[in-house]
Specification:
The complex is a heterodimer of chains A (about 350) and B (about 260).
Chain A (H helix, E strand, L loop, with lengths): L1 H41 L7 H10 L6 H36 L11 H15 L7 H27 L3 H25 L2 H11 L8 H20 L1 H7 L3 H6 L4 H23 L5 H13 L3 H26 L7 H19 L7
Chain B lengths: L3 E11 L2 E12 L2 E6 L6 H8 L6 E6 L2 E2 L6 E3 L11 H6 L12 H13 L15 H14 L4 E5 L7 H18 L2 E5 L3 H7 L2 E6 L2 E6 L1 H4 L2 H8 L1 E6 L7 E7 L4 H7 L1
Parallel strand pairs in B: 3-8, 3-9, 6-7, 7-8
Antiparallel strand pairs in B: 1-2, 1-4, 4-5, 9-10, 11-12
Classes of the chains: A mainly alpha (about 350), B alpha/beta (about 260).
């Protein structure tokens, strides 16, 4: 009997140790993100010593050193904060998408969201002057609205034909091609100047961020958080497979549809202001799962932090290699994402959701 | 009121084919019921219908009320898990509705105890995707028992287990029934396993319930011939339950071939 109870204690201790290890991974990743954020703030065309950064942060936007205050609070800070937000949104959205579709290749863009956002943006760039709204809001608003339209289309298909991963993916592919061809049409019709603007929007770049975009994105992300927190265990249970999850009393169809809406909102919030940023939403979930497994209490926050790390890392790297003309982060993440994806495939070739 | 599962004219159709036609039975709790029948007889369909996983006609009542998915235990046939979760985590998901951000020591303790009862405590920290099919089946069974269901529906849930584990699991189920007065409905192909471990046998054939009662009344050489199409010998054994030894498949009768033409 003593060996029985000591066996039980052993299991419980093992479980607690595993949880503690995951928590420390999470904390470690968070510290890494903070350090990268500081690095991002001190790099830029004009440079900034750490001391100045410290004083500038303490003094606030109305600090005495006008130059430091302006560079820090008006130029760099919105970009950095936006980078963290966008990376976190894409990481969260990516992990949830991979979970509900049970597919390691899924990303926030799998169901045609980025194509829809791109079309919305292109539409606004071409005809935006006809809409009675301040210019800097028209493009993001249209991109956001179009993403929700895409989401609505896929949702409708899922409602009619059932929310299985297959139906969602097929519907998503249809939506993807639909918006891509509309976008091609617009690009074909556009004048060279407008075409250039459209193409520039498509390269996701943090340069477009302002405090307004930060506020809107943060508000949407915060509004989604309670729903994500509430579905944490349901998402983990879903990973047992539909048959198991359903037999454990989980409403598989509902959780899939709700999560899908959350993913659409997070993605729309992430891409509407800064444009398409690929690979973050694909890679961050893989990294998170590899580090802490699929208990979504750990993997969701870690996917968010990892997404932010990748994006801020790309931003620092972009400023580092070309201080004068900052390379859009979207291009860097896309280029850097390919070897990362190869690494993920090589490391976990077979079995499970890689 | 005693717990009882009542089936009244249960009908299930897939497209236009009737896979279950008019199954009626009244089954008292506190026993293990073996659900047997040839391939395609409707065993899984019946379990799915009871568990509310598929739409069905007729009435299915547990304790006088429709079955509440959240309060019963159901283990479907195909349930391989390919997730990066440890065995203990998978067990804990058996109570996913009650879990919060922090898991209480008590819950972890209950999960560990179930694993120990199943004799798989050493697997607790292993990744689910590293287990064999039989080990996974044990884990998923243990997960269902963590829910402490009063009605437990098992579809071929011991099919991948070796002889020792089959006996161990069925003895566990027997103890569980004795301790809680629950009802266990288990679909099995192994006639000897059903004979040895169930209190009552339900025999399905062609979507109909063709036998319901004790072993001796349901499984007879005549029944095996007409339902399974086999000749079998019943050999008395020291356990008191005869061993069923299939000898040869009976030839398909020439008349039935003519009829189907």
């Amino acid at each position: 009997m003593t060996s029985f109870s000591s066996g039980l204690e052993g299991m419980r201790d093992g479980f607690r140790r595993a949880s503690a290890r995951r928590t420390s991974v999470l904390i470690g990743a968070f510290i890494g993100l903070v350090l990268l954020t500081v690095l991002d703030l001190v790099t830029g065309p004009s440079g900034m010593p750490l001391v100045d950064l410290w004083h500038g942060l303490l003094a606030g936007p109305a600090g005495n050193d006008r130059m430091v205050a302006t560079i820090l609070w008006q130029l760099r800070m919105p970009q950095t904060v936006m980078g963290v937000l966008v990376g976190a949104c894409l990481g969260l959205a990516g992990l949830q998408m991979q979970t509900i579709l049970g597919n390691p290749l899924a990303s926030p863009f799998t169901l045609g969201f980025s194509a829809a956002a791109g079309f919305g943006a292109a539409l606004a760039i071409m005809f935006g002057s006809l809409i009675p709204l301040p210019g800097f809001l028209v493009v993001p608003a249209c991109a956001f609205a179009m993403t929700l339209v895409a989401c609505g289309l896929v949702y409708l298909i899922a409602r009619l034909r059932g929310s299985t991963p297959e139906i969602l993916v097929l519907g998503g592919i249809a939506v993807l091609f639909f918006f891509q061809s509309l976008q091609s049409l617009l690009q074909f019709l556009a004048s060279p100047e407008v075409l250039q603007q459209i193409v520039f929007w498509m390269f996701g770049s943090l340069l477009k961020s302002t405090w307004t975009s930060v506020a809107v994105t943060a508000a949407i992300a915060c509004a989604c958080l309670p729903f994500i927190a509430r579905s944490t265990w349901a998402l983990t249970t879903l990973r047992l497979g539909d048959a198991n999850a359903r037999s454990l009393g989980l409403s598989v169809e509902n959780i899939r549809r709700h999560t899908f809406l959350i993913v659409a909102l997070l993605t729309a919030a992430a891409v509407s202001f800064v444009g398409t940023i690929g690979f973050v939403g694909l890679i961050a979930p893989h990294v998170a799962r590899a580090l802490v497994g699929e208990d979504h209490r750990f993997s969701l926050p870690l996917a968010a932090v990892t997404g932010a790390i990748i994006l801020i890392g790309a931003s620092v790297f972009g400023k580092f290699i070309s201080p004068a003309a900052v390379i859009p982060v979207g291009i860097i993440t896309a280029v850097a994402g390919v070897p990362m994806l190869f690494a993920v495939i090589a490391k976990r070739g077979q079995g499970g959701m890689a | 009121m005693t717990m009882r599962l009542v089936l009244k004219d249960v009908v299930v159709q897939h497209d236009r084919t009737r896979v279950l036609s008019g199954v009626s039975a009244s089954i008292a709790a506190g026993q293990i019921v073996g659900l047997i029948g040839p391939n395609g007889a409707g065993k899984s369909t019946l379990l799915n219908a009871i568990a509310g996983q598929s739409s069905s006609g007729g009435k299915i009542l547990w304790c006088g009320k429709p079955v509440d998915m959240r309060k019963i235990g159901f283990m479907p046939q195909q349930c391989q898990v390919r997730a990066e979760l440890s065995v203990l985590e998978v067990i804990l998901l058996g109570r996913h509705e009650q879990l919060g951000w922090r898991i209480a020591d008590e819950t972890v303790g209950a999960a560990s105890r179930i694993l120990a009862f199943f004799g798989i405590g050493d697997l607790a920290a292993r990744g689910m995707q590293t287990l064999s099919g039989g080990q996974q089946q044990l884990v998923l069974l243990a997960q269902r028992l963590l829910r402490e269901p009063q009605l437990l529906l098992l579809d071929e849930s011991t099919s991948a287990l070796d002889v020792r584990h089959q006996m161990h699991v069925l003895n566990l189920l027997k103890d569980y029934v004795a301790a809680t007065g629950a009802l266990v409905l288990i679909a099995v192909h192994d006639l000897n396993l059903a004979a040895r471990h169930s209190d009552t046998i339900m025999l399905l054939n062609g979507g109909r319930l063709v036998g319901h009662g004790t072993l001796a009344t349901v499984i007879t050489p005549d029944v095996l011939r007409s339902v399974y199409g086999i000749e079998a010998e019943f050999i008395p054994s020291s356990s008191g339950v005869p061993v069923i030894l299939p000898l040869a498949p009976t030839l398909i009768q020439p008349e039935t071939i003519k009829e189907t033409r």
